[in-house]
């Protein structure tokens, strides 16, 4: 039984369904320890035969038997295993992987063996030493001479200790000195008990072997034994093949990424800008939203509902309630009185947590020394006002008021207005008694603080105002109420229920004003803006994904030959796919990290620049934004690599090896 046997091998290439037969029935037997040269005219089918022997070609008729066992060439997996365990290739054009060092080129073959990390390294170094390259191990192939490159290729072919070495014109590109050295190495390989099959045009090379097979017109027309085959040594090999582990693909992808560092950096920068846009817009959305909420909440209590009497009995909008307020107060103050029954009904409304009585003065005069000021609205301090609206001083205690900054300026001067805090001012206004007769009220109150900003208002201590009214026999009943909703989410419902309270004639009796409605409008706009920004960011992510797809396709076409080399070494389609998806995932991951660095810098700068102005961090990136960005980047880069990786895996290894 021969070690390797070819039986009735036939092969034809097809062009427009027309068959061009190349091999027309080849029967050959080979033994280990042989150094066989295959000679023949150009185009005679030598390389085609080598691809069949080497397990690269699946489309032929006939049988290949190894140790008497049929190699099922229709099954891809069987051929992958066969190449991985049995065959080592040496090519005329060396076919080294340019982005790997000499040592790594040899280690690629060793990745598919059962040796541990140290053993692999030791073996690679030993083989490189044997071919005389121990000083060149860390160089890249483009820094080697032709002879040196071919010796690296020989070391790689021997790395996994295969029993068959196929060399296609191994000395075709070498000078005579290097040719002699390579032939000596090949002879030594045969001496070590391997089967060496060399395709050559050179009689000198052929004479070096133990046997010459001549191929003409697709048939064997000569088989000459020059010397007996070398005796077989005892089989010392302990190296067992195994499938390529995923970690090896990741390592190789990473090395390729680093080899093309600058080009990849630009791609990563491009992708990172897309991810950065998503992060920044999301952070800005969070910040703006938070800022507006914060502004509104700091000045007013969003859970509070201000309730007035509705003298019309009809349904009124919040704007209508507000605009008719002053007029009603002046024309018929009695019509605005909220009685005990109203207060009780409000308190019973579902979702109302508390009801607070209040008085609003429609028009009043303040005087400080010789200066006077007239105001149009002063309310008793209530739950809708927050202490944050007071910028200087504090909320009004007994006998105290809070004025607006503007009022303080009018009563003093633009430079000294703050001095008014703690000073007493005279307050006078008109009111009515329970019969509706006018009563003039006046008294001295102390300025507790000054309110400032959009919702600044004038407020007076409730007990103080009640006391002033009582003293003059005026009506002390409330003319507005503050209802606090039990939660932020039911403010509008509570307001609606209050608006719907009716008297015996089925007329509406109260009108409710909420700050929640303002908040809602603002939130709608913020949400709209965030959606638009997210869409823009989404487009930039799409561009990033397209960029990765293009890059990966470019990478596949640049690395076509490498794909062929790796397939010839025994890598599966799956390994090739992983090579490209993992590289893309690295790009995605590094882009995300780069985006995080950029967004961190921009966030710090923007927040720093704007903090002085708005006292708020306008960009707020949350931990979930960061996780989202990294996950999205990895997913997008993985998806973007799927098509190119699939394309790479499907390449025919023979065509890939023939690529320029
Ligand atoms: N993929 C292919 N499609 C079509 N025809 C092919 C293909 N590959 C090879 N051939 C043809 O098959 C024939 C044998 O080619 P092959 O490369 O095996 O010859 P060879 O003996 O190795 O030649 P050389 O010594 O010049 O390398 C040639 O005529 C070639 O044109």
Automatic annotation (TrEMBL):
Which Pfam families does the record match to this protein? ABC_tran, FtsX, MacB_PCD
Per UniProt, which keywords does this protein have?
A: ATP-binding, Cell inner membrane, Cell membrane, Membrane, Nucleotide-binding, Transmembrane, Transmembrane helix, Transport
What compartments host this protein? Cell inner membrane
Where is the ABC transporter domain positioned along the sequence?
Answer: 4-242
The record ties this protein, via PROSITE patterns, to:
ABC_TRANSPORTER_1, ABC_TRANSPORTER_2
UniProt similarity note: Belongs to the ABC transporter superfamily. Macrolide exporter (TC 3.A.1.122) family.
Q: What is this protein called?
A: ATP-binding cassette domain-containing protein
